[in-house]
Structure formats: C-alpha cells, structure tokens
Specification:
single chain; 279 residues; alpha/beta; Purple Acid Phosphatase, chain A, domain 2; 6-stranded mixed β-sheet
C-alpha cells in the first residue's frame, strides 16, 4: 500500500473521529431576542429549547445535555419535536427536563420522527404528560403575568402536513404576544400570516454536516441552506420567504441528535436558552 493511500486513510479516519466527537459535544447557546410587542410583565422571559433529541437512552450526549441544563431555571422548557424513540427513552427525557427546573412548565410538540410510528408516539405522549409536560397538538396555552398574557402555541409536525395553525390559535386573544413551537421552519409563511411574534423550530439539524465554502449539506426544510439554523427576521427573513415578515422572527435550532449516522461537522449539537426582551 502506497504512502499516499496510507495518508488518505489516516486523514479520512481523523475526519470521522472529529465528526463523531462533535456529534457528542453539545453546547449551550444563549440568545437574547428583542421582541417589541412583548408585554412589560414578560420582559426577560427565558425559554430553554431542546430540539431533535432522537433520544434512545440516557447516553453520553444526553448526560452532557443534563449537565448543561441543570438548574438553569428557565421560565419554560420548549421541546420542539423528534423527541424519544420509546416510552423508556421518554422517561429519561422527562427526568432531563425536570433537572432544568422550569418555573412555568414544559411544553412539547411532535416532529416527523415522532409521528412516523403513531402507536409509539401515543406511548411517548402518555409518559410525557404523566411527567407534567404539556404536549400541544394544534392548540395553545395562555401564560399570565399580572394582566398581561402570552399565547404559547404548538402545532403538530409541519414536515408531514399535520400542522393546523388556525386550530392552534383558535380562541386566543387577538392582540396577545404569540410564541409558536413548530418542528419545521417550513411553517414560517403561515406564521407570518397569523401574526406570530416568535417561532421556535428545529428539524434541519443545522445541516448536520457543514462544508467550508458550501455550507449545510442537507436541511430538508423547503428553504434549503437559506434557513438552516439561527435567528431570522426583518429584511433578511423577507428575502428568503419572498414577503414582508412583519414582526415575525424564527429561530432554527441545530438540534441535539443526528439522522442516519451520529456524525456532525462544524455543526455542534445545541441547547438554546433564550431571553426575550422588549429592547
């Protein structure tokens, strides 16, 4: 075997080792989001987002997540889909969520991996609800501070067409601040039309593999690399969706788990802690 072949194999092995290491090295991302319509009573409201865990058991990555979120004490935890593969994993997930110490509860929605096996998803939902986690299925809850209200809405998986944003917002106060949980950012146009203030989503895994000079490899969001991860709003979002987004902002999490193989490159798993502010 020639030297060039040996060097190529060594380089390939080193790259794979790096991709595995990054897949199991989650980071805590802190984001401050300015929301002009946020009621003064909700100023500095904190949301911890966990997305795309694809959780099978309490493994190395999940234990690292638990260390990151322990005692963060957000106001709410938002679980934005692709959560757990079975009831046993859901129990471990519930314990992980509990360790964050959210003061106003945890809320979950479905992702495409959840609804792929309906009977399994029913069991996962039951476990989460028994643990006190509200699973939102095209519905909303009202959060109240003083006389001020926040609408926390959640839709079923948009990627598989199960979302019904109109039903999710039915009966909600028309002038209230709307925080929407939706697994895929493909819902963004409907969210703009409905006047949502902030959308938290995932699904893309940030591309999972990000190539220098090219960007995310595969996002499956409908907007490709243009809406792969991060916070979008204003003119930047408008150019992507081809319309004025008004007040709507959308955040796409890189997520925690992996699709196909546990490999990531230049796209570490993330846990996101938002602080919503008025200015």
């Amino acid at each position: 075997m020639g030297l060039a072949v040996l060097l190529a194999l060594a380089a390939a092995g080193g790259l794979i080792a790096l991709m595995v290491a990054q897949a199991y090295s989650p980071s805590l991302v802190r984001r401050k989001v300015v929301c002009p319509r946020l009621p003064a009573e909700f100023h500095r409201f904190r949301v911890l987002q966990l997305s795309d865990l694809h959780m099978m058991h309490l493994g190395r990555r999940e234990r690292a997540i638990r260390r990151l979120v322990r005692d963060l004490k957000p106001d709410v935890v938002a679980l934005t889909g692709d959560l757990a593969q079975d009831e046993a994993a859901a129990r471990e997930l519930a314990g992980l969520v509990r360790s964050a110490g959210a003061s106003e509860g945890a809320f979950a929605i479905s992702g495409n991996a959840d609804v792929r096996f309906p009977l399994v998803w029913e069991g996962v939902k039951r476990v989460l609800r028994e643990a006190g986690i509200a699973v939102l299925e095209n519905e909303h809850r009202l959060l109240q501070r003083g006389k001020a209200l926040m609408v926390l809405a959640g839709v079923e998986d948009p990627h598989t067409g199960l979302d019904d944003l109109r039903a999710a917002l039915a009966g909600a106060p028309g002038d209230a601040f709307i925080l929407l949980l939706a697994h895929s950012p493909s819902i963004v146009v409907a969210a703009v039309e409905a006047g949502c203030d902030l959308v938290l989503s995932g699904h893309t895994h940030g591309g999972q593999i990000v190539l220098p000079g090219y960007g995310p490899l595969l996002t499956r969001s409908g907007y490709g690399r243009r809406l792969s991860s991060g916070l979008f709003g204003g003119e930047r979002l408008g150019q992507i969706i081809g319309m004025d987004p008004g007040r709507t902002q959308v955040y796409i999490s890189r997520g925690i788990g992996s699709s196909f193989l546990p490999l990531r490159l230049l796209c570490r798993p993330e846990v996101t802690l938002f602080e919503l502010t008025r200015e």
